[in-house]
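Q: Joint fold for the lines below.
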Amino acid sequence: MKEKFINAIGAGEFVKDIFVLTEKSLAQKRDGKNFLNVILSDKTGDLKGVVWDNVDDIVEHITSGDFVYVEGSVNEYKGALQIVVKKTEVRSADSVDPGDYLPETGRDIEKMFERLLSIAATLKSIHLKALFEAFWKDEEFVRKFKTAPAAKKMHHAYLGGLLEHTLSMVSLADKIAGHYTGISRELLIAGTILHDIGKIREFDYTYKIDYSDEGRLLNHIVIGVQMIDEKIKKIENFPEEQALLLKHLVVSHHGFREFGSPEPPKTIEAVLLNYIDEIDSKVNGIREFMASEEPGSGWTSYHKIFGRHFYKGKELKQTSQE
Amino acid sequence: MKEKFINAIGAGEFVKDIFVLTEKSLAQKRDGKNFLNVILSDKTGDLKGVVWDNVDDIVEHITSGDFVYVEGSVNEYKGALQIVVKKTEVRSADSVDPGDYLPETGRDIEKMFERLLSIAATLKSIHLKALFEAFWKDEEFVRKFKTAPAAKKMHHAYLGGLLEHTLSMVSLADKIAGHYTGISRELLIAGTILHDIGKIREFDYTYKIDYSDEGRLLNHIVIGVQMIDEKIKKIENFPEEQALLLKHLVVSHHGFREFGSPEPPKTIEAVLLNYIDEIDSKVNGIREFMASEEPGSGWTSYHKIFGRHFYKGKELKQTSQE
Amino acid sequence: MKEKFINAIGAGEFVKDIFVLTEKSLAQKRDGKNFLNVILSDKTGDLKGVVWDNVDDIVEHITSGDFVYVEGSVNEYKGALQIVVKKTEVRSADSVDPGDYLPETGRDIEKMFERLLSIAATLKSIHLKALFEAFWKDEEFVRKFKTAPAAKKMHHAYLGGLLEHTLSMVSLADKIAGHYTGISRELLIAGTILHDIGKIREFDYTYKIDYSDEGRLLNHIVIGVQMIDEKIKKIENFPEEQALLLKHLVVSHHGFREFGSPEPPKTIEAVLLNYIDEIDSKVNGIREFMASEEPGSGWTSYHKIFGRHFYKGKELKQTSQE
Amino acid sequence: MKEKFINAIGAGEFVKDIFVLTEKSLAQKRDGKNFLNVILSDKTGDLKGVVWDNVDDIVEHITSGDFVYVEGSVNEYKGALQIVVKKTEVRSADSVDPGDYLPETGRDIEKMFERLLSIAATLKSIHLKALFEAFWKDEEFVRKFKTAPAAKKMHHAYLGGLLEHTLSMVSLADKIAGHYTGISRELLIAGTILHDIGKIREFDYTYKIDYSDEGRLLNHIVIGVQMIDEKIKKIENFPEEQALLLKHLVVSHHGFREFGSPEPPKTIEAVLLNYIDEIDSKVNGIREFMASEEPGSGWTSYHKIFGRHFYKGKELKQTSQE
Amino acid sequence: MKEKFINAIGAGEFVKDIFVLTEKSLAQKRDGKNFLNVILSDKTGDLKGVVWDNVDDIVEHITSGDFVYVEGSVNEYKGALQIVVKKTEVRSADSVDPGDYLPETGRDIEKMFERLLSIAATLKSIHLKALFEAFWKDEEFVRKFKTAPAAKKMHHAYLGGLLEHTLSMVSLADKIAGHYTGISRELLIAGTILHDIGKIREFDYTYKIDYSDEGRLLNHIVIGVQMIDEKIKKIENFPEEQALLLKHLVVSHHGFREFGSPEPPKTIEAVLLNYIDEIDSKVNGIREFMASEEPGSGWTSYHKIFGRHFYKGKELKQTSQE
Amino acid sequence: MKEKFINAIGAGEFVKDIFVLTEKSLAQKRDGKNFLNVILSDKTGDLKGVVWDNVDDIVEHITSGDFVYVEGSVNEYKGALQIVVKKTEVRSADSVDPGDYLPETGRDIEKMFERLLSIAATLKSIHLKALFEAFWKDEEFVRKFKTAPAAKKMHHAYLGGLLEHTLSMVSLADKIAGHYTGISRELLIAGTILHDIGKIREFDYTYKIDYSDEGRLLNHIVIGVQMIDEKIKKIENFPEEQALLLKHLVVSHHGFREFGSPEPPKTIEAVLLNYIDEIDSKVNGIREFMASEEPGSGWTSYHKIFGRHFYKGKELKQTSQE
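A: Joint structure:
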């Protein structure tokens, strides 16, 4: 377990703690001897460091992404903190709490998952039931589905974010499916649960949240369709039309080709799924953006992706000024 | 009351009925005498006609948009029906049922309006209460708000469509406001009710649904803000911030400048209103498009605005083939 | 075999021939009796027809897309030819030459396929070899791959068009791979062969060339990745990186998200594949457009998709004027 | 009155002068005691400062935007000047010359306003005359109209900029209205004077030029229409068509929806107003950009909004090199 | 000289007049004999015709674009007028008045040209003077410059349109150059005169207004620069900077790359020229569009390029209804 | 000849070498005396410097772009190297090797040029032969054509880059011209050789690679057409159509108006030229981008223009980690 997080460390301290090694690069001193620049990280930030001794040994045994027990003294260098590393030992990923190293949802993952299961259990189609049974029995899938983030930045960009986003959307989908007549609740709920499952492979989230090779090369939409295809192939007599419509929900859920969907939504369920996704990711994204801003102004700073400032309101402003 | 609608009239009949005169234009016979080409309409379609006699009198007394009692015989001319008009009398708009001449919502307007009133009545802010009181007391507003269409084409393009669209959105807004914490239900419900009120002046819908001069020159967003501004000015101490945020919901409800909003949504309530509007207009628009298409195919024809075919499904196709 | 193609039939003839029934729709005569409007087609065009007798029997036994032996007399009706159908018999698809009913490549399909096999045989990677072996052994795949069109309109929009387009691209790819150093010829050739295989399911091309349900709902890019995924799963130890890069070629071959690729090309091979596809489809598309235009002008008519007139040249113009 | 402007202050000086407090934020020393970071500004720039003593008192009594008499010594800290504030006293806005704190037009505001009045006085329509009378009698309107900037950045971004921009445009409009026949000079001149009046509320310009809450939430186009609507409502028998066309000039003056106009120009006067606005803002914007650039090059640096370098010319280059 | 224009010809007349032969195409009668479909045109419209006799002779001697004296009788065929041509004789272009066959400016070409010369004569730069002298001495240039249209459609699409457009712009440029300080009137006036000269080769306008091969392949901007380059090369010591800036006015006058300018305006003169061009072409285009519309409505029909209806006004509407 | 390149210079050295003076700017010391900030460059980078003595003399005699022999001592200032210049002497451009000061192609310029000549020599058209003869005889053209870069950034942005890019494209064009029937190899090869010749004037590349005034004001497409026009004018009976088609290849080679081509490609040769240009510039650009990136990651950093990361591959990553 972590003793102290990076954002609490000050100059002058001697640190003994486990970090993730985010980057390392070899450099040369004027005298020709090698030394190592490293970046150590936990969920609260990054700490630059140097290693003067024992460099070759470390280069050989420690890889970016490793959890490393480090001992060293912290000082200020060029206006920033720097740790002079004295000792390093690789630790297994099992021996640490990933939540110490990556931001994590504030909600209870197991409870969210149970809630999702209970909604999935209300589906009546025997084929959809069989499909979800296949997913829930797939332990690796479940493990990753519970921890994956929903994005690298922008919204739900933390461990458990995918599950949190999916559950919120399923709950919205249920409400909206009931509002209009003629909507297939079965299809909409099933598609909502599965729409982003490709993200469990689109991202790496062992020690930092970033795109995986597969994510960058194939996109979670394509990965997700493959994952569904694989499971459906093993279910006898899965109706072809139902399979197509379910995959279509995944394929079209970004709404437009410009946003990565090879085809736009062509059923009302697909149109709804796209808007439900938009609503949930925008609401979460704007809130997190507002929360990340310093108080004291009625407006957020300019949000580059959304292209605007958001209004936080008069009251907030007054509070922060008194 | 109408005897027979245009889509039921056949060649060889002698017609005595009230139509709306949609167009008239003077033309000249080879012998130099004037005659009149007219288009008579009701909610089921248009009927071309000619008037050979008494032309000057008609030109003087009948204007496009008038309800006209017509007698005449119907024949076929160049492959289409044509009525040779023998007699015409202008009738007052009061003496006819507008629903005979323009498409109308299939739902009960009074019940929808009562339902809207009851939701508006749940608002707690005394200023918002006062604002709605002012609107509901404005008889001309209420009369128009109950009959206005929500669009010329695309969605809810029929009398009562604005009310139907608004009520559906308010109900959705209520559900979504409850889904997320930190949403101002007051603001979202009030803004949803008012977001499109400018449409009661943006459209003409006495005898055909089309843009009014004011609609084309100012846009319903600008008209709506003026209408709210006028009412708010008469309410004492209406809080300035609340007024701004309410108007902002109207100003931004199209989501992007490209779609006519001078500013994009800058509060979460405004973001939500935009999506709720999108959902309700798209769902209604796609359904009406599907319903307007001939059965017998699994797909609709190409929808030019949406840029795609929509899937109607296998079962429909099979039905139509058997 | 066809006796006479539709573009050669004239008014006054009595026809006994096999057509594909492209459309049928029931209508009612003034006396209340049913009759049938039909459209009969072959590769040279469409022929409208009516069936007055025996209608119920035909409605029951003949479906759109059937090949039908028809007897009837041809006359002119409202300025177009019309066949009054006297007799109809369904014929099996085996008993006709599909090339009589749909436009077909002018080149020899078997020779093109052999040529493609021989190029595929030059690949050295044992895993790619195994992959292509799996495809070539899949008889249904091969049958469809040989007959599928490459598009509904625009380019190679005829039976065998996919193979013709693929082979031309592979040959170009081979030349370009040799032009630059550091290109993986293995990957580029393999990806070029497979890039459009999803089209064998994206289109229906039994009796008319149109999008299939699967094509409209999933897009050939997504279908193609699933097809490759299915084959690769059965090959032992197929290297993960090679599989990703191969699928990436399919995923990105439209170059931009706007054109349907969920991810843009991120390797030089993918960049090249996109351009090779662009070149071959544009050159074929422009040539077919030029060929479809009436001679006698130095310019084609306006091409709506490309947004321009194409120059056919002075000499052509002179020829056509003399 | 200012003793010395910020751009003339050097390290080592002891300053006694009035600044505007642009920002203040509380921070904590290592020993746990509060101190205050402040930014003091005048029209020539910003000066960072710290307050070590009496912090709570200042926090309570001084707000961002206040004019503050400050005493303190200036030193260099991390490569920039910093004032160590010893004494602070709030001063009333009346006691300072706003032109000392914000950039101001170089032209005589009163003369410009008189010139505008004299042009407005040439209008012949009694209703337009009544409308302008109403505006000129509105003292708060006149006061703000004389001082408002025309923009935050880009063009005429200084006190009096709105008036300068409006007057220049009115003069251009007069010339262009005379060039073409059939233009309503009345409408064009009136619309030009009023097109940007919403900016007097869109911006805050008491101590810094920035968007107001109302500006960001409603946009000056919507604000301007409300302002005109309010005045017109009080004029008897203001012709409806004239009112619509005048408001349309305001609504459409940005030319395209993408640029914030809910409707594009639909009369020739509106088309002209849009171009006159474009010309005057572009010419002013480019000139100010050129003037803000260091001499010595024939080209400006890259202008991000306009997406290009501007040519300043050979002669300039030579001059600056000698 | 024309006896009677096409829009005045009625069925039953026997015509003896000169037309331009816009199109001819050979067809075959059922009996295998050739006949000729022709289109005859003058500035008021087109008249379809057939030639039954002497076909081979006509095919050999008459070419599209020829002026042809025709005798024939006019009847109605399929709802349109058709002339059965009995006699044809080619006439030389000199023997006809081109203004009878193509729409022409309503203004006096010679007076417009003199006015332009007099403005050009106010330029002071000896090099610009020499340049214009070279152009005015180039008889072919002058002849074409006086007759060329400014466009195929949209604005000034008639003989003399280029001159009319240029003169109007020069006059506007003179006014605007005087409005701002620091504008080079020399450069702006010279550039305005020359900005569209490439159009004298971009269009064919001998018997119909259409793009020339050169126009479609090179664009009038590139043609215009070549024309200026050719003249400048022959002027001794023409200052390089002046030549570049003058050509830049031509190159950039469409304002954006999307509109065909390889570079956007980079001097204030170029920015102004672009707006002056926009104003004059829009005002002319909108007016001609309004004039081409039937009276009787306050609005024009939808203008596809401009994407809107234009307001013609209440009064017009009333007039046309009475 | 250079003694030592900038990237090899360290603090503490005393330098005696020739650099290009990229920038100089006069500044004032606190005591009021002038000093000079300079930037010295060679192909490996920039070195900041100060001159304390003899400033006026240097200002008068040395201009940006001059080659200057410098003596001075190098130290560290604010974390970067700085040379304190003691002595300066201007050197003539002839006395230095330009390749020392600007990046240069790694390939043999003379050999590349010979190869290009030999391909041009295969053309059969006597007029094209005459045209190239005219270009090859133009010594200034040849000298610049051999040294010009193909771009400022992005691809082939080094001396000789234009020739390298052109030769690579010509070789590709030859292959592709042979792949399709009906392509004019003559036109395609000639157009490919000439498509970018305007770049020899679009860029300055004497001491740094940047746009020239002419390049920024006219664009290389317009410059190139003028250059061809000038040569063609001197060739007797150069066929007009051939000249137009050749210029069209230059005009349209950027493919779309948005990318600077006043007209899009309207012949198949022009379509091909555009793609060949795209392929060669993209392949070169991506490779150079990959090469400029630090090893050690499977992906490049984000490429802003291309809007993506590029995949460098697993193997690279492993190599760099061991």
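Q: Anything notable?
A: Chain A is about 45% helix and 20% strand. Residues 315-322 of chain A have pLDDT under 50 and may be disordered.
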